[in-house]
Amino acid sequence: MSEINRAIKGTNDVLPKDSHKIQFLEKTMLETARLFGFREIRVPVFEHTEVFSRNVGDTTDVVQKEMYTFLDKGGRSITLRPELTAGVVRSSIEHGLIYDALPQKVCYIGGCYRYEKPQAGRLREFHQFGIECLGAASPSADAEVISVAHQILNKIGIEKISLQINSIGCPECRKDYQAALKDYFEKNIDKLCDTCKDRLTRNPMRILDCKSPVCSKLAENAPKVIDYLCDDCKKHFEGVKAHLDSAGLKYTVNPQIVRGLDYYTRTVFEFISGDIGAQSTVCGGGRYDALVEQMGGNPTPALGFGMGIERLLLLIENSNTPLPKDKTCDLYIAPMGEKASIKATEIANKIRFDGFEVQTDLCGRGLKAQMKYADKINAKFTLVLGDNELDTNTAEIKDMTTGTKTGTSLDKINDTLLSLVLNSALENVTDSIIE
Predict the structure, then answer these.
(1) Phi, psi of 129 (to 5 degrees)
(2) Are 314 and 329 in contact (CB under 8 A)?
(3) Which of 7, 152, 160, 431 lies 20 to 30 Å (CA to CA) from residue 142?
(4) For the segment 135-145, what is each residue's pLDDT rounded down to a tens digit?
């Protein structure tokens, strides 16, 4: 196959047989977020490069190695978004959301782009669901944001997953921590990768997030940020834990969590799974209290999370988590001849207005070929429409599972089909209860 006929490395096609899974996830995510008061926001897929380079952090892997950046025809530096928080904050400032009633609660679903080595659970084009809560400084806001993620994972049916939390403090209490880190890593500078040698002078905390096995091993014995928290940050973190306890959410304090972006402050958290290999983080987030002001808005506390949809699908597959089956065709109408085809179009359109999925022949095939097609698309019921049916204004609807046929007037197919579908659904529920 020609190279141009293959998807670009690090991207995936979603085929019709799988799209219902993503639709189910997205519906569950948006509906769950709505229960907490979060409304959907949509922002552009590309921004001015500075939106990310200045705010995500120029010492992060995302900015240093992974961004898709280009000059547009006007000579402006443009970047495909590697994450959505910065774009959402930019939009919230531009349109005055942060000057309206606070907190502002927004959620989103969108594609992100990072040039990194493709592997299971990590793509160059991936999709995220996320929420952002702007204007809330209390520990209860942290617990609520974490609760949104927990409820989504619970409603999807994910079981083997754990919540890990940490506090990385504020800029003030991090000064002493940064100094302690720098002192520790300087003693091992010869073992650091070239990227981390540069980070050592600019932002030693980034070394803790390095994917190099050697740097990761060194980081295990590095000073812990939680030991350097100021009194306010300690109080905040204790409040977060108290609210999580009140909500019945189990968690583990993991001092190694720092997250990969520079804008985080205080609470950071991850939901971890052991069923998807190296890319074990299904959801990650935390506070970014300085970001809004850093981007030109009024000082505004804020926090949120991102949840990778492809990574979540991989977890579902590896853990054999059941998902709802795709809805199949309710009725296939098999017309025999041109007059019957015209009538089939009329009937199909009327029934579709009642919410049924109806298909009919579009290829001029014979009856046998049409029945094969109806079987392939898993049509629940079929109806053959020929000259006799047109003359008598009657037809028979066949249940493709049981073979039972039910007579109906062509004028009342909607009512007959509704009755058959409801009876079939009731039988399935009854069988499920008996089992």
Answers:
(1) -105, 140
(2) no
(3) 160
(4) 999 999 999 99
